[in-house]
Backbone:
């Protein structure tokens, strides 16, 4: 017995050595976590540094409010006001589509869907998030714009409406999943309390559940807006890209050009160091400020929910007496309805306007006449219609690409290089290039992400440091992918002299997925119960021993899920590699990290926008990309579900 | 016992959660305008049974029911019965106070509103009456428009009772209404139950035998999903017929 104790002691490391090791580990994790903040800072500095000349030469207000964007004119004009207006217009209409559909789908999934239906519908909506934006853009370009052109009998379907429809669909998964989280986390006691007073299910949903979840739903909408504003490739491909304010302003069939699209189009052709170059960085700064503000607001709201201070509609100071608030609410509805109707009249003309007035009128009459049960039928029918529409859209996109893409797929297509600008031949170098980009990006982002998560979750208490780091991660997460592309170009390609290369692309992509990595790793660490750590620490294990042997192992499935999702994202992204890593047609593979590569999303982008007559290979490329990315998402969903079932704490 | 008709009759009720049986062949009657208590050790099925009485178990996906629960001699599980209508007439107060995240006023007005009462004056009257009946009016009349979340646990529970009263049900089901409260708050609820039975029929689930003996007129003792014994409270606590009941009452298990 006593021999055992002696043996144990002699095997133990000396306290001093142990302390050094622990200290090293702590600083290593701190470094990983601080990296995110440093990067945000770097991005800001580099964008400002490169954008500064345009602010100093033409002045901030002339830049922001100048009404013409014409960098190639004489003299060149750099007023981004039309771009800002277009960006807001596209976003607003997209939200008009996405918010009702998204919130209704979230309510359906959380409250109505049967367990089995839910287990299919929820991943399906998440899959929508997995479709690369260039595939959305491709679908929009070949199907949606054509549909609009024929429907409205206009010369071109590339317009504001097309961009908004696409963006609306793309923002859906964000809105659905965040709202659904908020709605399902409303305690079931509220539902029971309401039902026990004889309220119908719909009354319970509309009067108790949704109001209780309103902050989460708001945050979801704001995040959706952020996503819509930051999106590049899809809008670029379908909006026609004329830097004009629609005339009249409600002409949804007018071509428009967003801030992001301007960067995507012009960055590749601009001469480095020119005023135009600087103006593009100026745009990136504006874009970043907009998206960062939006995201900060959203995370503030979500953070409040997390820390349980949510007002849920009451509490806090009351500025109005309840009678005033009551009548405000009552008349507010009428006022909003009238304004909305006026807007419809102006925007859509007399006929549509009259139809809407009639519909509203009918609704107000019916509301008095219908009993709660009938209202519930009507409401549920609308919810079903919403989720049905979402699934129908998803089905259409996938079916179109699969049906048209399958004939292109052959062994040769997958294994040979392109010829005739990609009209003939295959896409093998693009597949391999994407593979290289993914491997490199994940190898960089994974260790940094896990390290940062370990620091945030295991090594510190919540305080100013973690708040700063978290804010950095959130900001990085909200940064539009095209801004990463610009940063990669200015910093990696030019400043560090990597050139347009595989390495520059890998690093840029790694930065882009870093926040996802940190978030998912942190979530999985958080799910490990405190008691497990206490158990280990109580046995005399050090912090790092505890983390390594009892905290990390159960967190692995979650980290794997996060990694797979990141791989999908990296494989599908176009904007960050547009100026940092890719070349359109190359018959050979890169031989070193400093050569450019082909990549699937970029190949699809060029084929569908710049190469006429490559229809078959376009669809083939889109299909390969879609299968690759959606396959990865499916694997992630399966891994997640598998472990959720297996791990019971 | 005979002067009161049974407002609810449970008739050979069996209930399963998935494959496991939770209630076995329960048959009993809840007399009108009386307090009926259900007692028994944890997991005996008393909460399950009370949740059957206004079809709250409908919310549990894997729940399956056989037998009948008759309310005014009509089976509430019949196909043509709307559970919403049943719940309006048979209200429920839950184990933990569950006020909505709204004001005190809005909590009480919630039920009437969902049933179509829009008139402000009428609502004001209902709110005041319900809060008075729940012995809460004097404590909250000056903060009707503050969040209900700011009330104490006991006040929240009485608010939930007021919320139930506001829709004027015939029966009030209470599922361990005092178990999350301190003794003083619990005593207030108990004296409230005493007053309520002049107008309402009350069914209360409790694991507290003293509480059952204080507030109820009739008591059912449940064990392992079965109703072991049902009778007047006095009989159950003073002369139980079954040894199992006696063992439980005298604290030999449970």
Residues:
């Amino acid at each position: 017995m006593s021999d055992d104790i002696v043996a144990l002691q002699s095997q133990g490391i000396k306290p001093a050595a142990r302390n050094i090791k622990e200290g090293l580990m702590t600083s290593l994790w701190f470094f990983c976590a601080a990296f995110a903040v440093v990067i945000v800072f770097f991005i800001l500095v580099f964008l400002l540094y490169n954008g500064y000349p345009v602010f100093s030469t033409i002045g901030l207000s002339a830049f922001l409010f100048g009404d013409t964007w014409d960098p190639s004119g004489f003299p060149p004009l750099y007023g981004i006001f039309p771009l800002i207006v277009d960006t807001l217009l596209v976003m607003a209409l997209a939200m008009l589509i996405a918010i009702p559909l998204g919130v209704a789908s979230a309510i359906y999934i959380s409250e109505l869907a049967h367990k089995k239906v839910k287990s299919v519908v929820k991943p399906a909506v998440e899959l929508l998030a997995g479709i690369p934006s260039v595939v959305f853009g491709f679908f929009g370009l070949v199907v949606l714009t054509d549909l609009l052109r024929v429907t409205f009998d206009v010369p071109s379907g590339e317009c504001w409406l097309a961009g908004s429809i696409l963006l609306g669909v793309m923002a859906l998964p964000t809105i659905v999943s965040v709202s659904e989280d908020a709605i399902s986390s409303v305690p079931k006691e509220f539902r029971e309390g309401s039902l026990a007073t004889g309220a119908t299910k719909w009354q319970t949903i509309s009067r108790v559940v949704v109001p209780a979840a309103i902050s989460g739903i708001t945050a979801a909408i704001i995040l959706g807006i952020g996503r819509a504003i930051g999106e590049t490739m899809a809008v670029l491909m379908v909006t026609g890209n004329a830097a004009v304010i629609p005339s009249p302003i409600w002409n949804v069939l007018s071509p428009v050009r967003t801030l992001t699209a301007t960067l995507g189009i012009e960055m590749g052709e601009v001469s480095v160091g020119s005023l135009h170059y600087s103006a593009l960085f100026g745009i990136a700064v504006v874009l970043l400020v907009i998206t960062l503000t939006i995201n900060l607001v959203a995370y503030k709201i979500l953070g409040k929910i997390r820390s349980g201070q949510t007002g849920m509609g009451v509490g806090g100071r009351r500025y109005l007496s309840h009678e005033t608030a009551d009548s405000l609410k009552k008349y507010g509805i009428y006022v909003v309805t009238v304004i909305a109707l006026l807007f419809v009249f102006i925007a859509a003309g007399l006929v549509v306007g009259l139809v809407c007035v009639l519909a509203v009128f009918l609704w107000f009459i019916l509301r008095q006449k219908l009993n709660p049960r009938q209202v519930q039928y009507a409401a549920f029918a609308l919810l079903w219609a919403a989720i049905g529409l979402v699934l129908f859209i998803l089905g259409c996109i996938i079916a179109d690409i699969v049906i048209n893409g399958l004939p292109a797929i052959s062994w040769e297509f997958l294994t040979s290089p392109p010829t005739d600008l990609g009209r003939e031949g295959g896409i093998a170098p693009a597949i391999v290039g994407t593979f290289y980009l993914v491997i490199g990006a994940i190898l960089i982002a994974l260790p940094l992400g896990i390290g940062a998560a370990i620091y945030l979750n295991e090594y510190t208490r919540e305080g100013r440091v973690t708040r700063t780091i978290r804010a950095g991660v959130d900001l990085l997460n909200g940064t539009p992918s095209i801004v990463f592309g610009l940063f990669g170009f200015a910093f990696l390609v030019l400043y560090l002299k990597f050139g347009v290369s595989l390495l520059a692309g890998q690093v840029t992509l790694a930065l882009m997925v870093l926040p996802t990595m940190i978030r998912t790793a942190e979530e999985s660490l958080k799910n490990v119960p405190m008691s497990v750590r206490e158990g280990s620490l109580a046995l005399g294990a050090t912090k790092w021993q505890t983390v390594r042997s009892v905290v990390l192992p159960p967190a692995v499935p979650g980290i794997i899920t996060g990694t797979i999702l990141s791989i999908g994202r990296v494989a599908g992204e176009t904007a960050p590699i547009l100026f940092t890593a890719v070349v359109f047609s190359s018959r050979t593979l890169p031989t070193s990290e400093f050569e450019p590569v082909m990549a699937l999303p970029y190949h699809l982008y060029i084929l569908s926008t710049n190469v006429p007559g490559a229809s078959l290979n376009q669809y083939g490329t889109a299909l390969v990309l879609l299968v690759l990315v959606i396959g990865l998402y499916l694997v992630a969903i399966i891994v997640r579900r598998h472990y959720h079932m297996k791990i019971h704490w | 016992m005979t002067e009161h008709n049974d407002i609810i009759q449970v008739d050979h009720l069996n209930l399963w959660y998935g494959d496991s049986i939770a209630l076995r062949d329960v048959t009993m009657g809840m007399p009108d305008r009386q307090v009926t208590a259900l007692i028994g050790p944890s997991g005996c099925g008393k909460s399950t049974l009370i949740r059957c009485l206004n079809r709250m178990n409908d919310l549990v996906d894997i729940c399956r029911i056989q037998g009948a629960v008759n309310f005014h001699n009509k089976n509430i599980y019949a196909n043509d019965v709307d559970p919403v209508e049943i719940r309006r007439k048979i209200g429920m107060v839950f184990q933990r106070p569950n006020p909505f995240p709204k004001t005190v006023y809005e909590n009480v007005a919630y039920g009437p509103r969902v049933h179509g009462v829009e008139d402000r004056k009428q609502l004001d009257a209902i709110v005041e009456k319900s809060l008075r009946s729940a012995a809460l009016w004097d404590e909250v009349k000056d903060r009707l428009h503050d969040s209900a979340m700011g009330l104490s646990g006991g006040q929240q529970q009485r608010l939930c009772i007021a919320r139930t009263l506001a829709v004027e049900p015939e029966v009030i089901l209470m599922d361990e209404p005092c178990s999350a409260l301190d003794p003083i708050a619990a005593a207030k609820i108990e004296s409230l139950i005493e007053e309520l039975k002049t107008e309402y029929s009350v069914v209360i689930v409790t694991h507290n035998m003293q509480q059952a003996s204080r507030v109820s007129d009739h008591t059912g003792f449940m064990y392992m999903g079965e109703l072991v014994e049902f009778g007047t409270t006095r009989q159950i606590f003073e002369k139980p017929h079954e040894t199992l009941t006696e063992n439980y009452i005298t604290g030999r298990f449970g």
Remarks:
- Chain B touches chain A at residues 54, 56, 59, 61, 82, 84-89, 91-94, 96, 98-103, 105, 110-111, 113-116, 120, 145-150, 160, 163-164, 166-167, 169 (CB under 8 Å).
- The longest strand of chain B covers residues 6-17.
- Residues 120-133 of chain B form the longest helix (14 residues).
- The mean pLDDT of chain B is 90.
